[in-house]
Amino acid sequence: VLIKLGALHPALVFVPDKVNVDPAYGPRPQFERIVLFLFLHVGLLHLGMNMYFLYAIGQQIEGMWGWQRFGIIYFVAGIVSGCLILLVSELNEGPTGLTAGASGSLFGIFMAMVVFFWFNREHLPERLIQDWSRNLAVNAFLLIAINFLPGISWQGHLGGAIGGLLAALLLHVQRFHPSPPIRWLALAGVPLIPIGFFVAVLWEAGWF
Predict the structure, then answer these.
(1) Chain centre to alpha carbon of residue 189
(2) Over the range 81-102, which residues count as b (16 or more CB within 10 Å of their CB) and which as e?
(3) What is the pLDDT of residue 20?
(4) Is the bond preceding 23 in cis, omega lying within 30 degrees of 0?
(5) CB-CB neighbours of 143 under 10 Å
(6) Considering the entire predicted model, what is its pTM?
(7) What mean pLDDT comes out for the span 55-69?
(8) What is the pLDDT of residues 161-204, one digit of tens each?
(9) Which of 205, 207, 208 is nearest to 15 (CA)?
(10) How far is residue 69's CA from residue 84's CA, in Å, rounded to a whole number?
(11) Quick one: which of 153, 63, 146 has its CA closest to 112?
């Protein structure tokens, strides 16, 4: 069911002919899975954990960045997450397992929270800095620890963190830099993040 709905598997992107799937899905490389897998979860527990994390800190992060930037960071992180899963599988010379879930995007918005805190810390009250520091430390520990559990895609989490960090840095420049041309350049650079990782996937798939 997960395969038919769009879960990510390197063999379905790089070498679909080697996987016994519904003929309707092959033999073309299925790059759309880099996006579709973000909307799937492996059971109610998986879905519940991710949605709880999104509920617990998502509204706070959305308030920091605004809903447009929040959405951009979320999807950039998710796409980079999928791309890194594919790239690491090729470096390891073998496919990883089936991957689904929004965890990469959640790692990305967490990194956006870190970026916001870092660049705005001198403008925040000392009490708020202490509270946020504890909150960031606890969440960072939990997010790192979860990668050591069996069946967890550390590749996807790392990719999401990288994508979220890069997108947040550029959007911070776009938001606060005094020079309009620099702000426009930063904004133009945001879509280049997932595009760059996707080009790397195409390269590994032998399209160049």
Answers:
(1) 17
(2) bbbbbbbbbbeeeebbebbbbb
(3) 46
(4) no
(5) 17
(6) 0.85
(7) 90
(8) 999 999 999 999 999 999 999 999 999 999 999 999 999 999 88
(9) 205
(10) 22
(11) 63
